[in-house]
Specification:
mainly alpha
């Protein structure tokens, strides 16, 4: 449902109460995460924040999937222009303790994401340096993928938080079809595509942004913000007629999110 942009159906499919989930295993937090994505797609940021505060932030972050649930949802909110307050601080504090673990590429990316978003860029860079040292003299798949994909992605995340969006875009653009190495589901990895798209737009890499948004509007045509940003990019490229068409599609789209 998430990857087919069927958020309305998703909300209807997960109408459970807190009481109904009580006593279930810790993976229930990831189901709540999906519920939050459906709410975000419909523009209901109040519900998204309530799910975060009541069902995700209270979960034990010793489990790496809890860190990824929380960091990925906060980042999506931030990309959507929502002020998430000081919610990054807890995740950054935990992530700071784990920067030398390198158990999973997926875990490393989300630790870096939390650190950078919280403004702790020094520790994020220390984390990247640790990944470089970890992968330098090894030839296994994890080390090779860390060098080729994870480190550039993390460097781009830090650059974007510094406002160097064009450089961030240039780093991630060649990797856009290789995110599967990092792990996680298609829905989870879509965050990296969103980060790239945001960097392309903010960095005024409009030709790159045009291609990315063409894909997103095709795959997620029901979502207004994709069409709105696409129209802005087309206008910046001087393609007024196509921009007007995109705005018309924005009006017709049924969901508010990306």
């Amino acid at each position: 449902l998430e990857m087919q942009a069927r958020a309305k159906e998703g909300v209807a499919w997960l109408p459970y109460t807190i009481g109904q989930w009580k006593g279930k295993n810790p993976f229930k937090a990831h189901v709540w995460w999906h519920g939050a994505l459906f709410a975000l797609a419909q523009g209901d940021t109040g519900r998204v924040l309530a799910i975060y505060d009541n069902e995700l932030a209270s979960v034990n972050t010793e489990n790496y999937v809890d860190v990824s649930n929380q960091a990925a949802l906060l980042k999506r909110l931030a990309l959507d222009g929502v002020d998430v307050g000081d919610r990054w601080s807890k995740l950054a504090a935990y992530s700071k303790k784990r920067i030398h673990d390198h158990m999973l590429p997926f875990r490393d990316v989300h630790f870096c994401l939390a650190l950078a978003a919280a403004g702790d860029l020094a520790t994020a860079r220390e984390h990247i340096a640790s990944m470089k040292a970890f992968s330098a003299d090894r030839s296994d798949w994890q080390a090779a993928g860390t060098r080729r994909i994870v480190i550039p992605l993390c460097e781009a995340i830090v650059l974007a938080e510094e406002g160097q969006h064009a450089k961030a875009c240039d780093l991630v653009w060649p990797l856009r079809h290789e995110f599967a190495f990092i792990g996680g589901s298609n829905a989870q990895r879509d965050l990296f595509a969103q980060i790239l798209c945001d960097a392309a737009v903010r960095g005024k890499r409009f030709t790159v942004a045009r291609g990315l948004l063409s894909e997103r509007t095709r795959n997620r045509a029901a979502r207004k913000s994709n069409w709105k940003t696409y129209a802005e990019v087309l206008s910046a490229l001087g393609e007024g007629k196509l921009a007007a068409d995109a705005l018309q599609q924005c009006e017709l789209a049924s969901e508010a999110g990306a």
